[in-house]
Amino acid sequence: MSDPNTHPNLPSVDRSNGLRSRLPSPTSLALLFFLGIPGSLIPSLKRLEWFYLFGLFTLWHMVTGIVPSPSDDAEATNWISMGTPSGLRPLVSMVSLQLNPLIQWQGVKQIAGHGLTFLRYRLRLPDLDRFDQQVDYRLPVEGEWTVVNGGPTRDTSHSWGILAQRYAYDLVVTDDDGRSYEGSGDRPAEYHCFGEPIVAPADGVVVAASDGHRDYHRAGGWLDPRQRDLRGNFLTIEHATGEYSVLAHLRNGSLEVSKGDRVERGERVARCGNSGNSSEPHLHFQLQDRPSFFRSMGLPIHFSNLRLREPDGEETVHERAYIAAGQRVASTE
């Protein structure tokens, strides 16, 4: 079921990324940062402190997010008009976040978790061929949404170098002109997806629920400098052994379930918000192998019973399919 080429109801995925697909992400080099610690503790190993410089590679995903590489498939999403007018606002916001100790600590936990994940899988990380999805998942939204970030391959990945988010998705609602907002786009309420229902993608048990994080009052590329969790308000749901979904950036006060609650497929669990590390209202969704956001590995996910609308307007209905940035998607359930 994990291989789209062997499942009759799962369209094939273009994985012709060549040598690039086999090279490690520069973000992984940040793991060498920890070799500097012995240099700080043992005088004779002081030269090892130079390894602290590798910590700068944690900024790699920020740089690529602002300055896309020539290999990025811009054509798939160039019809979408987001609320961020340029890369300047996210850049200024990211610089200010370097002074936020809570976010910096989460960054350290994330990189440390990479090391544990590599060891756990002996460098053979789950991918389209090595992951056997146990559960059928529906889209975690109602109505038609637009995929603005994410896909099942390295070239379409949300954040290839951040292992837990490797196969994550960012979803928004766009109008007929491809705009995710109306008006100036400076306030969360001007975004079409803000406050829209979020649903459980499959039956399961809530293993983590966090509410009470403010929705940042600015949008259009600005990040909350006082955020205390990258996820903002979020839910983590266990669906099967080794399969946990994460729904993040939820609206403050909108969670309808708590830790320990059992949820049913399609049940409304929260509403879309602008909390945490969010430049504009959207839903961040990912499937991971462990409950911990920082020590888990992201898993490629195909969805069941959905309609896809491509940028050229072609519309298809699938029993199962992967989705990718640039597509409009809707559940047929």
Automatic annotation (TrEMBL):
Gene3D superfamilies assigned to the protein according to its UniProt record, in alphabetical order: Glucose Permease (Domain IIA)
Cross-referenced CDD domains: M23_peptidase
All copies of domain M23ase beta-sheet core, residue ranges: 195-288
Pfam family, one: Peptidase_M23
One GO MF term: metalloendopeptidase activity
Signal peptide location: none
Matching InterPro entries: Cell_wall_metabolism_enzyme (IPR050570), Dup_hybrid_motif (IPR011055), M23ase_b-sheet_dom (IPR016047)
UniProt cross-references to PANTHER family, sorted A to Z: MUREIN HYDROLASE ACTIVATOR ENVC (PTHR21666:SF270), PEPTIDASE-RELATED (PTHR21666)
Protein name, as recorded: Peptidase M23
Organism expressing this protein natively: Natrinema ejinorense
